[in-house]
From TrEMBL:
Its EC number is 2.7.13.3. It comes from Streptomyces viridiviolaceus. Keywords: Kinase, Membrane, Phosphoprotein, Transferase, Transmembrane, Transmembrane helix, Two-component regulatory system. One of its GO terms (molecular function) is kinase activity. It catalyses: ATP + protein L-histidine = ADP + protein N-phospho-L-histidine. Residues 204-256 form the HAMP domain. It is an enzyme of class 2 (transferase). PANTHER family: HYBRID SIGNAL TRANSDUCTION HISTIDINE KINASE C (PTHR43547:SF2), TWO-COMPONENT HISTIDINE KINASE (PTHR43547). This is histidine kinase. The keyword Transmembrane helix applies.
Length: 503
């Protein structure tokens, strides 16, 4: 559980904004520090290099005329020593080379900093060459310069064959560079911390309207359609808030109109059903009389009388169903709970309708399974399920009643009604409890109003139970009702909000 929660937290907009700001700040800080370091390092080394080369060239040009040419070894040694003493630093080391002769300012100095490539470059280019090298961890600047001279009436400078090389330690300059690196590193951490702080502040400013939008959306989803957002500014988030308010207003208007129309339709159905009950009662009384006298009438008249009687009965049942549905919609359906023997109640339902010989029952012994239910509504549930199995399924029809314990320890009653027909088509299964739904558009009116299973579902839900439909592997459909029947469920079921209630 922690891993998905952590992944969701890491993928949140706040984290992404903070990470984006931090990355931008880090890249900017590191880039700026790198450029600053490069420019400062170049400036420090360039200044040191220019100073050394200028001093070196000036010293060589000053001393060369004082020595005879071509020089002997002793002359080269004196020349190298004199050049080394002319530096602003005491760490100058000089190598003087003339053809096969060479001499250093320090006796026995191997001059390891000087590479063959640099010597070849000085010899070939006849120009001052410099190179930074590191030997034994110590940085140094190596400068090589050919000595040239111009004869009388000559303008070009010809090589004299004398080459002078200088090595100057760069330890002090490297210290400056190291100090610069340390300063940049120290400045990077506060810069990143400041960037993260700014990122948090920016994310908070950006996410505040987003969080408000989320709360408003959740409020709309919970049914509070009058929810609106306070709009600040004129940016994209403000436009989004405007759009949300307009959408919420349009939705509230549409839902209000739909509720008004729905309430009107319910009132109409209830009023029509109520108004039909009086003439239907009179018609039923008349058809009862006609049924008694039908045996003495001619065949055509008797058939017409029986047809009128059957249709009047169906119309009365439809009106009663509509009245029942109207009570559910209005939230007026009430439970009248009683502690009864469930098996006896089911057996009485079957006996009243003459189904005891038709339906195969599996009922517990009298007194074994008792529960607090509404007897009238349980009668409606069982009658509708059995009637549906007889009408749309095939014999034999099985009814089974048994008790079970829920995971929390509460007692439940389970009623299963199964038929042996072809079962329920898969495309019909999601709609079996819908009102007026018929899987076959060509089904005749005599096959029911389409309200029986809807009323069953409402009665079961009113008890706090569940009802579901499925197909059996061996064929046929099975409807399973689960009702809580323990005394501890009485108060909970009585307080359960009913469909159609308005908060």
């Amino acid at each position: 559980m922690r891993a998905p929660r952590l992944l969701r937290a890491l993928s949140s907009l706040r984290v992404r904004l903070v990470v984006a700001f931090a990355l931008v700040a880090a890249v900017a800080t590191v880039t700026t520090g790198a450029f600053t370091f490069r420019e400062a390092r170049t400036g420090v080394l360039q200044q040191s290099q220019d100073t050394v080369i200028e001093d070196f060239r000036e010293r060589v040009d000053t001393l060369v005329p004082n020595y005879r040419f071509p020089p002997a070894r002793s002359d080269l040694e004196s020349f190298a020593s004199d050049v080394a003493r002319g530096g602003r630093s005491d760490n100058w080391r000089v190598l003087a080379v003339y053809r096969e002769l060479n001499a250093t300012s320090v006796t026995g100095d191997a001059f390891r900093e000087l590479s063959p490539a640099m010597r070849e470059s000085v010899h070939a280019r006849r120009a001052t060459v410099f190179q930074r090298v590191t030997v034994d961890g110590r940085p140094s600047l190596v400068v090589g310069m050919p000595v040239t001279f111009a004869g009388q009436y000559r303008t070009e400078r010809r090589a004299s064959g004398l080459e002078v090389y200088l090595t100057v330690p760069q330890t002090e300059e490297q210290g400056y560079v190291d100090a610069l690196v340390t300063a940049i590193e120290r400045a990077t951490v506060p810069a990143l911390a400041l960037a993260v702080l700014l990122a948090l502040l920016a994310a908070r400013g950006v996410l505040r309207p987003v969080r408000a939008l989320r709360r408003a959306t959740r409020s709309i989803a919970e049914g509070r359609l009058d929810t609106r957002l306070t709009v600040h500014g004129s940016d994209e988030l403000a436009d989004l808030s405007h759009t949300f308010n307009e959408t919420a207003a349009a939705l509230e208007e549409s839902v209000t109109e739909l509720r008004r129309m729905e309430a009107g339709a319910r009132r109409f159905a209830a009023d029509v059903s109520h108004e039909l009950r009086t003439p239907l009662a009179a018609m039923s009384a008349v058809t009862d009389v006609l049924d008694e006298d039908a045996a003495g009438l001619d065949d055509d008249t008797a058939m017409a009388v029986r047809l009128i009687s059957e249709e009047t009965t169906k119309l009365a049942d439809l009106v009663n169903d509509l009245m029942e549905i109207s009570r559910f919609d209005a939230g007026a359906a009430a439970l009248h709970l009683d502690d009864i023997d469930l098996a006896e109640c089911v057996r009485r339902t079957l006996a009243t309708r003459g189904w005891l010989q038709t339906v195969h029952t599996g009922l517990p012994e009298p007194g074994v399974l008792r529960g607090r239910v509404d007897p009238r509504r349980l009668d409606v549930v069982v009658a509708n399920l059995v009637a549906n199995a007889l009408r749309h399924g095939a014999l034999p029809v099985h009814l089974r009643l048994h008790g079970q314990q829920e995971a929390g320890g509460r007692r439940q009653a389970v009623i299963e009604v199964a038929d042996s027909g072809e079962g329920i088509p898969e495309d019909v299964m999601p709609h079996v409890f819908d009102r007026f739904y018929k899987s076959d558009a060509a089904r005749t009116r005599s096959e029911g109003s389409g309200l029986g299973l809807a009323i069953t579902a409402e009665n079961v839900r009113l008890h706090g139970g569940t009802v579901r439909a499925a197909n059996r592997p061996q064929g046929g459909a099975v409807f399973t009702v689960v009702l809580p029947v323990g005394p501890e469920d009485t108060e909970r079921r009585a307080a359960r909000p009913r469909k159609g209630d308005r908060s």
